[in-house]
Amino acid sequence: MARASSRPLFAETLAPDRLAALYRATRQRTLALIEGLAPEDMTVQSMEDASPTKWHLAHTSWFFEEFVLRPHLAGYASPDERFAFLFNSYYVAAGPRFARDRRGLVTRPTVAEVLDYRAGVDAAMARLLDSGEAPADLIELGCHHEMQHQELLLTDLLHVLSHNPLLPVYRAPTPLASVEAAPAGWQRFEGGIVEIGHGGDSFAYDCEGPRHQALLRPYELATRAVTCGEWLEFMADGGYETPGLWLMDGFATARREGWEAPGYWWRDEGGGAGDGSGDGGWMTFSLRGPQPVDPQAPVSHVSYYEAEAFARWAGARLPSEFEWERAAGPVQPGNTLESGALRPRRALAGSGAGSGDGLLQLWGDVWEWTGSSYLPYPGFRAPEGAVGEYNGKFMVNQFVLRGGSALTPRDQLRPTYRNFFYPHQRWQMTGLRLARDA
């Protein structure tokens, strides 16, 4: 049996009542996300990167079972010891795992049985939380882990639904915005030595620290994310056909995958797009079904390769993660999972989802690619035990994204939060903000 770390994950933990409230709210939100789904929706796996909804429901429960209940609740027994094999993801120290690309073949346990498993874990967690012996750091980590899977559950479900020729709708469509987006601009930031990374005692993932110094040259950031309309200009100018704009591996990937537009875009040839527009324009598929591409909304579902090529076409570049963090400031309300939009929205002046330096759309809407490789900060040390596999072993061949998306729970967002994906991946809600040297 895998044991949790003997060293606290972070120094400042939540009071017992707040911890219990966080646990209940997190678990309930996951269940709210599956309302209206049929069991058939929750079993399908459409690609290796996207797991079935049922697997997310089970895996997040296994996490609490493996790292919290087994080591800390006397007498706890799993309802089925085989679940550890089925629902472990990548924790080698926690034991053998079922192949990731075959999760869609696991028709048993059924969705109903997985929900019973969740209920049993919740009941056991309630006993542990009431005992006064609950490991607050591990439980808070488990809640944030589940928040990450709430976003993954939705992006994976979007991928599944997009492959159904009926284009099923997860939530009812809503009209596109009628208010004009804020105009694009640039904000200057001076160079110098800046402090980067999480330096407090409250919750943060291990990869967000240690806090350290970074040297920045003067730079400018675009005041909002790149829009679909600007991306359409890139496409019309031969952006996807011009190898000089691309990294060699990126252009090879685009050719191999047949990319000619962002993910989930297609051209409406008239009457078959699902909305009756028939105008021959570009359409996109979201969790609210098919709709015309909104030229003023942030572009989404683009890979690092595409983002880097666009930046080069625009005469700019992607910001480093340190430039992004220096500019971000405190988290402001934005278009996150709680807003219920389920898709990126236009940047509106005075929206509050920016920084004191005049930047808009920093928080929510789309994850913003940076030009920074996902690497350990100076002095990084992974926690002991299996939880030490959470982030550290992925620090190679990936790039950092910042800021959250329209599907990210708000509690996940911090200026120091580092998301990361491989440069070819674009099934997540990923976009970009331009930078340039001042």
In words, what does this structure look like?
- The strands form four sheets. Strands 10-9-8-11 form a four-stranded mixed sheet.
- The longest helix is centred in the middle third of the chain and has 27 residues.
- The N and C termini lie far apart (54 Å).
- 29% of the residues lie in helices and 11% in strands.
- It has 438 residues and is an alpha+beta fold.
- Strand 6 and strand 7 form a beta hairpin.
CATH superfamily of the largest domain: paralog of FGE (formylglycine-generating enzyme)
Name the shape in a single word.
globular
Strand content: 5-15%
Largest sheet: 4 strands, mixed
Name of the CATH first level of the largest domain = Alpha Beta
Distance between the termini: 54 Å
Radius of gyration: 22 Å
The total domain count is: 2
Order of helices and strands: HHHHHEEEEHHEEEHHEEEEE
Low-confidence stretches: 1-6, 271-279
**CATH architectural category of the largest domain:** Alpha-Beta Complex
- Give me the side-by-side strand order of the main sheet: 10-9-8-11
Using the coordinates shown, work out and report the CATH topology of the largest domain.
paralog of FGE (formylglycine-generating enzyme)
User: Can you count the beta strands?
Assistant: 12
Structural class: alpha+beta
Helical residue percent?
Answer: 25-40%
